[in-house]
Input
Amino acid sequence: MYNRTIPFEKVDLVDYTAVDKVFSKYKIDCVIHFAALKSVGESVSQPLHYYENNVTGLLNLLRVMTSHNVKNMVFSSSCTVYGDPKFLPVTEEHPIGDCINPYGASKFFAEIILKDLCRSDPEWNVVSLRYFNPIGAHVSGDIGEHPNGVPSNLMPYVSQVAVGQRPHVNVFGSDYNTPDGTGIRDYIHIVDLAQAHIVSIHMLDTKCGLKIYNIGTGTGYSVLEIIKAMEKACGKPIPYKMCPRREGDAAAVYADANLAAKEMNWKTKFGLDRMCEDQWRWQVKNPRGYE
Output
């Protein structure tokens, strides 16, 4: 897309030696740490797998970074560290750690590790971004989310139903204390999220220490509202089926992102309609993903 080749190394962060070899091969100034397992439902059934991958992987990465004197990181955290919110919208001052699934707990443990590391060594600079719910795709339709197997996130599942790959959307929970009974989340366009990372890299240059920000729009949408928005984008009805609640899901979570706006000069640009339009363009252009 950008007419340049980016070196790619496929390694498992749990393999310390493999990670160390990558750092020995390249001159690295900072790390954007995206690598983690992220399915809430799967984490409930496979907690040890999630802790090994998400926590041990981070520890190995930090040890390697320290040994190579690379002390700048942008970390992918998550709104799941808030658990079932005590108030909405959620600010960065909301208590964390009362997590309702192992995925969220793994991100909470990671934040504690990064906090202790920055406290012990002031040369470290970390920007931890608490993602809310990234959806959408690049406007070109060339880059989007292609899950392996059955999607665990709502938007790719909805778009796969819309394109005819699946019979209906399973809506997990219709009896939450929300206006239509379905779960509410803060959905953010993936391009807005990417821009937050670019701003974060520049922040590292200021020797910022540890910074933590909510990355969301500040608006919550229910599962049924997402389905209706995608129906508008694709121009057809999307069948759905009400199912029991899924263990580990909160009723409603949406962000107060004012701190990111104030300190990072970052704000979202794209609304829900654009998110669905871009998602649909990707799905139609790539019905079988990257195959």
